[in-house]
Amino acid sequence: MAMGLGFRMSKEAAGSHAVSFFLGAALPTALLFFLASDRLGEGLSTISHNWGNGPSGDDDANDEVMFKGLAELLPRVAMDDRTVIITSVNEAWAQPGSLLDLYLDSFKNGEDTAHLLDHLLVVALDARGFHRCQAVHPYCYLLNATSVDMSSAKPFMSPDYLELVWTKLVFQQRVLELGYNFLFTDCDMVWFRNPFRHFPVYADMSCSSDDFKPSRAPLDNPLNTGLYYMKTTNRTIEMMKYWRAARERFPGQHDQAVFVNIRHELVGKLQVRIEPLDTVYYGGICEYHDDPEKVCTIHADCCVGLDTKVHDLMAFAADWKNYTSLTPEARQKGKGAFKWTYPTRCRDSIGWRKP
């Protein structure tokens, strides 16, 4: 049944290569968790002021109101170790045949991934996206943000874009404060294997990379916040506060750019342990490897346009189905010959080719 919190339970490095993004294309980094006060009717400007300017750790009472019901929601979705998987969609991404269907189907078709759907929270940013999510997934959370049209185009780096990307951090901080780990992934991604198997156990934060080289110092790998796992520790909570506060030092920058700028400070001052993730396991259009025996996820980064993302991710998903339909003998015989379908549309969308 649909519940008052806005969720439903049932049985069941391309850099600045684009000037603007369709909302669907910007959603992975821009529209994660636009948490206006939970049905409070407070204005967008008030919420943006409270969330966008530095740490708000002293506003516990306001947080309790702003995140009303979150403490009750998380145990319903969390794993035994208090970890929640989170992604987000809008109406366009949730349409039949669009990214949400691809994302959910990849769990069902992956190896040791189907059970993870029980721990996935899909955050819907508009009512139609929420209703579509309800039809295909048990755990959906509607974020009311009537002051902003979540289905309209959002110019990259516009004021609305920046407000949206920064709001995700205060939500994530609250999840950590409530004692939960989280794995955030963009919805323009397909899953093939359980990604938790390759997160370093000593890291506070494990983050995907656009171009990974083990010969580099860890933080010299270009980090991409399209997929990252964070443990709930005092260090990560302080890291979130520091990250948010750093926005004022880098005016007009989005959250990922600021994170890249302060990553050494987070390690040096707060002793946060940040590790990049190998693209052998966590690939993307920016960089992937033709090794189906190791791949866990592939992300449609370095790609502009919803239809473009859907097209090339569908090709990856089809390649995976063909591969997994082979007998073990056939897989072994063809070892080393496997090639993913080249993501032509995505790479053409940014006018770039990986050497």
UniProtKB/TrEMBL annotation:
UniProt-listed Pfam families: Nucleotid_trans
InterPro entries per UniProt: At1g28695/At4g15970-like (IPR044821), Nucl-diP-sugar_transferase (IPR005069)
Domain Nucleotide-diphospho-sugar transferase: 115-313
Protein name: Nucleotide-diphospho-sugar transferase domain-containing protein
Organism: Sorghum bicolor (Sorghum)
Top-rank taxon: Eukaryota
